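R.M. (postdoc): so does anyone remember the format we settled on? I'll just put the structure tokens first.
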């Protein structure tokens, strides 16, 4: 209890803007579409005004739009922003009139599907990202000051992290465990720490916690607490959710979607279906291959406009992920049925059709003899399948999986490569399924 009080007091005194902004959001009903739309539109007007008046890339764009009075059709006149455009025209995307340059910092995306992307964020954007993250906690029954554990793995984030006492762990009431590298002995050690700390809340890379959960369940280890579990940095597949929940006494597990570039994007909400857009932080669209809005229940690419970065605003940015639209909104989307994952999380057939990565993950998850896997499409007819075996491995189990893959990809060669581990991306993620074919 005393640790909760310390954490609350620290945030209340030293980060009052975060605290009071959170109180404003907590008063809004996540299911009240009209209130959210008005709140979001007010922010969108301000960022458009800044972009078209002070950012060269948008000032020089041959687009007629009145930031104070525009329709969604007007907004669609703004061409989508791609990673390649940001790389080649980054100097034109800065607000030359921005007055708080000392509060601007450079960051990079993870580069999980290719070359990392450099971009610039403001302190205000960072504050809003934190507020929206705390709002997601609130929507799932967690207070920002509750005892928590971070099971994290981005190499650049972890140099100074450990499980020992330090002042940050005290004031944030948090234990941080580095999951960038995991094996059975490390997992066993971390499980002991978690059982000792008994966090009310766990934030984790979904694949790292999935590995830990499999270890707990396989070895029938007793977990003496029941946390709320926040999973991020990848799709939370049904098999993963079930395994993780079971390991932690059938805990409530929810999916949160964010990114380095734009911070909080969407979250699942306790008691509700789908993923709700963090309307205070981003404006989201889901577009088809021709950049037209999809309808409810249809899948498309996620396109994001940042609402709190007035130095390097990103308008209609193709982030590289896909989702299924979950509402009937004409102005973008406020609810996603589900986030499917990276654009490269699909495998292409010869006829141009695509197979979603989830088809392949369901073939491998919960197989006794396969600890982990990765399927990479090198060309339209060649795939590399990396397999990490465990002591229960049986060739017949893999042969059964390969038959199912060959049925869907009859003209492809699948090269099976046994490995000691699956390499992580720069931010500690696993890309289970992706294609290197450029589309």
């Amino acid at each position: 209890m005393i640790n909760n009080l310390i954490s609350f007091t620290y945030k209340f005194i030293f980060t009052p803007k975060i605290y009071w902004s959170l109180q404003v959001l907590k008063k809004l009903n996540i299911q009240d579409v009209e209130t959210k739309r008005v709140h979001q539109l007010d922010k969108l007007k301000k960022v458009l005004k800044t972009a078209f008046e002070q950012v060269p890339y948008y000032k020089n764009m041959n687009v007629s739009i009145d930031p104070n009075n525009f329709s969604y059709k007007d907004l669609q006149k703004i061409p989508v922003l791609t990673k390649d455009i940001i790389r080649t025209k980054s100097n034109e995307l800065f607000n030359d009139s921005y007055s708080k340059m000392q509060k601007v910092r450079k960051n990079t995306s993870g580069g999980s599907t290719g070359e990392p992307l450099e971009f610039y964020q403001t302190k205000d954007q960072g504050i809003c990202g934190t507020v929206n993250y705390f709002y997601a906690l609130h929507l799932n029954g967690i207070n920002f000051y509750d005892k928590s554990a971070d099971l994290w793995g981005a190499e650049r984030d972890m140099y100074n992290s450990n499980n020992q006492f330090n002042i940050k762990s005290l004031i944030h009431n948090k234990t941080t465990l580095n999951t960038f590298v995991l094996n059975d002995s490390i997992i066993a050690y971390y499980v002991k720490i978690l059982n000792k700390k008994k966090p009310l809340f766990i934030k984790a890379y979904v694949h790292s916690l999935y590995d830990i959960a499999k270890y707990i369940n396989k070895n029938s280890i007793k977990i003496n607490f029941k946390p709320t579990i926040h999973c991020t940095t990848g799709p939370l597949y049904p098999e993963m959710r079930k395994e993780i929940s079971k390991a932690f006494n059938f805990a409530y597990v929810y999916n949160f979607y964010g990114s380095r570039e734009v911070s909080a994007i969407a979250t699942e909400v306790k008691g509700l279906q789908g993923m709700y857009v963090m309307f205070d932080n981003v404006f989201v669209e889901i577009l088809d291959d021709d950049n037209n809005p999809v309808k409810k229940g249809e899948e498309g690419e996620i396109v994001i406009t940042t609402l709190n970065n007035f130095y390097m605003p990103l308008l209609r940015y193709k982030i590289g992920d896909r989702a299924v639209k979950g509402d009937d909104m004409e102005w973008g989307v406020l609810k996603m049925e589900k986030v499917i994952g990276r654009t490269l999380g699909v495998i292409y057939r010869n006829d141009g059709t695509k197979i979603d990565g989830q088809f392949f993950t369901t073939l491998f998850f919960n197989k006794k003899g396969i600890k982990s896997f990765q399927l990479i499409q090198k060309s339209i007819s060649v795939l590399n399948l990396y397999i990490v075996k465990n002591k229960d491995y049986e060739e017949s189990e893999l042969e059964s999986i390969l038959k199912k893959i060959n049925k869907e990809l009859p003209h492809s060669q699948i090269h099976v490569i046994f490995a000691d581990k699956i390499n992580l991306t720069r931010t500690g993620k696993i890309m289970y399924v992706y294609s290197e074919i450029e589309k």
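R.M.: ...and that's the designed sequence above, right after the tokens. Also worth knowing: Residues 18 and 130 are 7 Å apart (CA to CA). The first helix runs from residue 2 to 14.
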